[in-house]
Give the backbone structure.
Amino acid sequence: MTTQKPSTTRRTTTKKITNQAQPARKKATPNKKDLKKTAPKKRAPRKKATSKKKSKGFSALLKRLTVRAIKWCFLIGLLASIPFCLWVWWLDHEVVETFAGQKWQVPSEVYSAPIVLRSGDPWVKKDLEVLLSESGYRFGRNSQEIGWAARSKTKISAHLRPYRDHTGEHGSARRIFSFQNGRLNIQTVSGDPISQATLEPQLIGHLFGGNTEGREILTHNQLPQTLITTLIAIEDRDFYQHFGISITGIARAVWVNFVEGERRQGGSTLTQQLVKNMYLSAERTYTRKLTEVIMAILLEYHFSKEDILTAYMNEVYLAQFGNKAIHGFAAASKHFFGRPLNELNVAEYALLVGMVKGPSLYNPNRNPERAKKRRDTVLKVLYEQGLLSEKLYSDAKSLSLETVNERKARTLFADYLDLVSFQLAKDFEKQILATENLKVYTGLSIRAQEAAVKAIRRQVALLEKGDKHLKGLQGAVVVTDSVNGQVKAIVGSSSSVYSGFNRALGAVRPIGSLVKPPLYMMAIATGEFTWLSQLNDEKKRYKIGNEIWQPENYDRKVHGAVPMYYALAKSYNLATLDLAEKLGFDRLGDGLRKLGVKRPFTMRPAVALGALELSPFEVARVYQPIASMGQSSQLGIVAGVLNSQGKVLKQFASKSNVPFTDAVLASTLDSMTKVASVGTARRAQEELPNLRFAAKTGTTNEQRDSWFVGITGDYSTTVWLGADNNKPLSITGGTGAQRVWIDLMKQLNPKSLVSTLPEGVKRFQINPDEYAIAADRCENKETLSFLEGTEPQTTTSCLWPF
């Protein structure tokens, strides 16, 4: 043991020395023999050490270069990733800011007034069926579901929709409608009679301004589950599993489309499609696709599946109508079917989802056959995935495409929308109206608007057919609620195509004899005149500047002394001038301004015969106090405005500020009924024998303008016909505009004027010849209204003396 340890130590020490102390070993001098023997052996190790040194040096250099290369690559990669990271950071900011904030600029929606159906109103069953159908109600075997109606030979049952407007919330209700002797009778399902039922306001248009997108925003809870299921089945089966992109979805879409020979499924996820629609352009480049993928992942990271799905269903583009792009399933439902989204059936959902693939290609109004084939393909996918039973699949496939014609709606309501824009411009900025999704509720009556459009087009066509010189005849109609002044209908043209020129607002023309009732009313208001006061209907001459003006009656005759009511009914010009002279022309001018004539004019004799230029809308405003007997003096267009959260921003109330008493206004209206019974509107009375109404015809010089004002218990209507180039016509107020009014009233079945008069005025049977109150037995008598204290103080029994 003792002899071995030194030996081991020696060897180790020697190895270390050999490796570390080579210079000390050179001092030993070996002999020649040993030198000869060991010399070759010593040279060989020196050569091997040199090779190893070279190998180690190359390896070290390679290692150093590799390390340096890795460092530089890392550094370069790090530097290069900074712009990429900044780009991703910017994309993340864009995704969050846009998606979390206001995603869309949505134009304001304009709605009609609720349609109020009252028991006792004149209605026929067919008219109510048409109204329900045009309001989007579906007829079936029962009316248990909201938006459905049923009918028998004598009755209609309907489940009326709930709605919200500026007056508050209104619930749904089932109502039974029956018709007895042309009168409406309304009951509950249990048979209890009720006074009225209300159909919800109808969407009539949008206020676009600079925005040309039509959209209706829904929350996730408002999305129908059937639609969600259909969309996911067709466009993204892995929607609830993927993180923005789906590899399996892409593979499955490729396989399915290859097998079927057509594109039945898409490779992009709904998230990717939403990113493309909301953030990106339609260009097809690798950069755009990479951007889409990254943004889709970021969107999924920040927001829930429900948020993404809701945004997609509000954003997806589905149709183009004129300059308006239809976005979202809710807006498309109204556009194509005229009904809320939650009332569609599975076939209609399938049609809308199928259109996602190609909105223009599968538009049912343009390509019905192609659209139906695409719808059936979607239904087949649902059936194959077990989402539809065989019966539902078969029933849905058998349904035909039933869509509404929105072009008709645009033509029907365009003139009224002009009026809405005009009024709202006073209270709201144009940009707000075009982008803030306000809900604007108006006084428009769908029924009255449709009737007015039909009446003027139909009668103008007949007039043109009867006289070729009337070719190009134009016209306008303004219908107001005779009580509250709400504008129920506006027609600005007799053409079937909207021209952009609204004659109801823009055609400023002489009003002719329509000026006479206000002038006669001013005479009654003085208390110095009654409807029996005598006027001199005789020729007159007036010097106007250097010219002599000599007016005449329409029949070119003079009629001597005539009572006021008769002069008004017959529209005698010369008698009217006699009254104007007695009252004073300046006094009459002031009275017209107080009635609402805001357009500047100079009161001269010709103005008393209608040389006063107003638009049909302005004429309607002048007559509103008379029609309402003082209850309203202004015309109402917009009733209320709500913001997108349902808060009332503006509520418009009818105004009554008339410088005449209710008694004077009522007496004037009552006297205007004589125009129908003995005057220039007798034809209307013959056509509507059971209707009590007030009227006035108007014709201007050389028959350039034909006017008619008719007032019933529920409507005050102004009609104008004329040529845009102001040429003479072959029609008068009685033979032109009156025909339009008769046609309109036959469609509306209006109520008669009420027979009651307000306090301060009463009716009396009068013998005009004796200026006395006549007994019932008198043959020559007229019923006239008198302000209290101005009626005749004597009576006559009409007995012959023996």
Observations:
- The first helix runs from residue 4 to 20.
- The mean pLDDT is 85.
- The CA atoms of residues 318 and 359 lie 5 Å apart.
- The domain at 212-404 is CATH 1.10.3810.10 (Penicillin binding protein transpeptidase fold).
